[in-house]
Design a protein that fits this description.
Length: 462
């Protein structure tokens, strides 16, 4: 407010009036008036200053109120502020929309009026919780709206005044429909992921079963063709022997019999028959061994803990996986006698097959293909261990994936070739055997995967 003109018109008025011969009482009265007018002047100036200050504060307050109103208006969650008795003091725009009424119709109503009678949490529950000085966290409320019950998840707390005394209750509710939809989408995505993973696990099982069958069939093929070839030779020998016996029983004379014996190469047949028979026997035994290995390594009896020789397991894994898939592979299996460990031979066989399979995959298309399996008894602080290493001449394992190769579903192979479960299964099996599995690169190139298991020499026999 501008100061009116001339407010200080007496500020510079001469205080000393000449009183020569004049009435001194009149001079005193003048002084008193001047003092009063000056005081008024000062008071008036102070009022003006206060007025200006008040206006500035008002402007700041209005701005703050506008900001808060903007905030409340832009909230999508329903906000209800009420006093400690549950009388509504303020609501936001989202609440007005939810209840289909303006703020003026909602303010001063009882909180209970806004909550559906069937709500899982009632207004009385709110007041009781607040009386205990507790918070309401994600509790389900049903609001009574014109469209019917409206479910919201509510968070609530006490509101305090500047002196720190409880002054009211603030409730914020998020429509549960949105949350439910989000949960639904999440559950669906999770279900989809689980199904895909199950399919992958199934695909992996079928793929390893397919590889196993192919490898075993390849292995069986050799001794069977051996048996088959020898059986054919034996049949020819038998035919010739029968022809000779027919001549004997037909009463042929000595020279005729000698001629028939030479013709039918009977002496040669008699020399070859034992060799053909032992060849057949050898082939049949090999078939029997392969079938026995197959039985042993595919049995899933978890309790079957036994002492077994790693050499047999490793050789069979190489025979079944590597030979059929990479016939020109150079293979060196250098395992000492009596490299015995304790556990489930079938599961360790599965580990070895996976490791050999990875090595074979890594060497695909490489100029030099060399698979090496070495092993030894190694002393360690936890007792003697059996260590078996599978080395290849592939490209090795890149450093940036080294930390992830044991993760389930981690693979660098194209879709349909690998599922990334191989090493994670091997890792779990090694742990179940109180052992471990490690991977590294060899200084000369290629990867080395090390399987460490307890040594049967150090452990009590089961
Ligand atoms: N000998 C190896 N040389 C190079 N990389 C390897 C070797 N062994 C494993 N890896 C890497 O580790 C990854 C994971 O191997 P893992 O055996 O778990 O899965 P996979 O072979 O890809 O698929 P799966 O075994 O399920 O068919 C492989 O994709 C490959 O990148
Ligand atoms: Mg693999």
């Amino acid at each position: 407010m501008p100061a009116p003109e001339g407010t200080d018109f007496l500020a510079d008025a001469p205080l000393a009036l000449t009183a020569t011969g004049a009435d001194l009482g009149a001079v005193d009265a003048d002084h008193a008036w001047i003092a009063v007018i000056r005081k008024m002047d000062e008071t008036y100036a102070e009022l003006v200053r206060q007025q200006v200050e008040l206006e500035a504060k008002n402007a700041a307050l209005e701005e703050a109120q506008g900001f808060i109103a903007g905030l409340l208006g832009s909230m999508t969650d329903v906000l209800i502020a009420c006093d400690l008795n549950g009388r509504v003091e303020q609501v936001n725009l989202a609440a007005e929309r939810a209840f289909g009424q303006g703020a003026e119709a909602l303010v001063d109503r009882a909180l209970g009026d806004l909550i559906d009678p069937a709500s899982p949490t009632s207004a009385a529950d709110v007041l009781a919780t607040m009386a205990r000085r507790q918070r309401i966290v994600d509790q389900e409320f049903t609001l009574a709206t014109p469209d019917g019950p409206h479910a919201v998840a509510v968070n609530g707390a006490l509101r305090f005044d500047p002196r720190g005394r409880a002054a009211g209750i603030v409730l914020v509710g998020r429509p549960i429909g949105e949350l439910r939809a989000a949960y639904g989408a999440l559950a669906k995505a999770h279900e989809h992921l689980k199904r895909t993973q199950q399919q992958l696990v199934h695909a992996e099982k079928m793929a390893s079963l397919g590889r196993l069958v192919a490898g075993v069939a390849h292995e069986l093929n050799n001794p069977i063709s051996f048996v088959y070839g020898n059986a054919h030779a034996l049949k020819r020998y038998v035919d010739r022997l029968i022809a000779y016996l027919d001549a004997v029983h037909g009463g042929a004379d000595g020279p005729a019999l000698a001629a028939a014996r030479a013709d039918l190469r009977i002496d040669r047949a008699l020399t070859d028959i034992p060799a053909a028979l032992s060849g057949m026997l050898e082939g049949a035994e090999r078939v029997r061994d392969i079938v026995a290995d197959l039985r042993r390594f595919s049995s899933d009896r978890r309790e079957a803990r036994e002492v077994f020789d790693m050499a047999g397991v490793a050789r069979s894994a190489v025979d079944w996986v590597a030979k059929s898939q990479m016939p020109d592979l150079t293979i060196r299996v250098d395992l000492p006698d009596g490299l015995e460990t304790i556990g489930h031979p079938g599961h360790i066989h599965q580990v070895m097959m996976n490791l050999v399979q990875n090595a074979v995959d890594a060497m695909e298309g490489r100029p030099e293909r060399q698979l090496e399996i070495t092993g030894a008894h190694v002393p360690s602080p936890e007792g003697e261990r059996v260590v078996v290493e599978v080395c290849d001449t592939g490209p090795g394992i890149a450093q940036d994936i080294m930390g992830r190769i044991f993760d389930p579903f981690f693979t660098t192979k194209p879709v349909g070739k690998g599922t990334g479960l191989g090493l994670s299964i091997c890792y779990r099996i090694a742990e179940e055997h109180d052992g471990r599995l490690e991977a590294a690169n060899r200084p000369g190139g290629g990867a080395v995967v090390r399987l460490v298991l307890p040594s049967a020499r150090a452990e009590p026999r089961p």
